[in-house]
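note to self — DONT lose this again. spent like an hour looking for the file last time. sequence + predicted structure for the chain T wanted, 305 res
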Amino acid sequence: MSIRSIFFTSEHVSEGHPDKLCDQVSDAILDACLEQDPLSKVACETCSKTGMVMVFGEITTKAVIDYQRVVRGAVEHIGFDNSEKGLDYRSFNLLVAVEQQSPDIFQGLGDFDSETLGAGDQGMMFGYATNETETLMPLSYELARRLAVKYSELRRSGGLPWARPDAKTQVTVEYEYNTLGGKQLLTAKRVAVILISAQHDDGVSNETIRKDLTDKVIKAVIPADVLDADTKYHLNPSGRFVIGGPHGDAGLTGRKIIVDTYGGWGAHGGGAFSGKDPSKVDRSAAYAARWIAKSLVTAGLADRC
């Protein structure tokens, strides 16, 4: 038997991260199209910077879309209601550069029967699942996701009165790698590092931020049995994160593909999900691959797949 330790790190982001903001705007437009016309063909991209959101891409639909209402509503829901936070849903400049889907792509889809519908493009899509957690997601990813979700819940409820929409989380897990009887085993042992970078109001002390993140976020979602005296915590390690959202960094749809999947586990073909209707196999086939992987693990045919 051979035993050694390996460390694996996964990250997650809040809904106010500039790239994730763009993902949500693209998906809000997709949802608005599909709500009125289920056969809509949508490939919607979004980019954002200080005081500006631009929507562009190819959309063929019978739906009538009020881009001002849909986009500003998505930004408001995220929590960008003041330019000091990085964007104000009431006053940013919205640019729309949307064209119809290329007829060359459209004709390749064939008819719209669910059994014979063609794909709008080629691609490499992967699914992944593991029995490490109840969600069948890798522990490093699942814990990073829980931290981001809890942060957002507390920000919205007022539990973190200093918190602003933009945040990132990262968790490093130590795994025990065994080779036993020719079988390779990978077992999560402990959390080695937790990192949270949270956008905050000006004037709040680092001590307050770190105490709140520890007591209200970390302790609420990270099981005590995976923490030990050697676990390291990096909470707002830069010391200041007031400028965030699109004001701090430009945002673009499709730049958080690892956050949207398995935190670096498995493989990724490079195609993003957001803003794409089901004829885009980057999204639909990746969902199907995840279902296959979950089925194999749930059936006990594999510990991870």
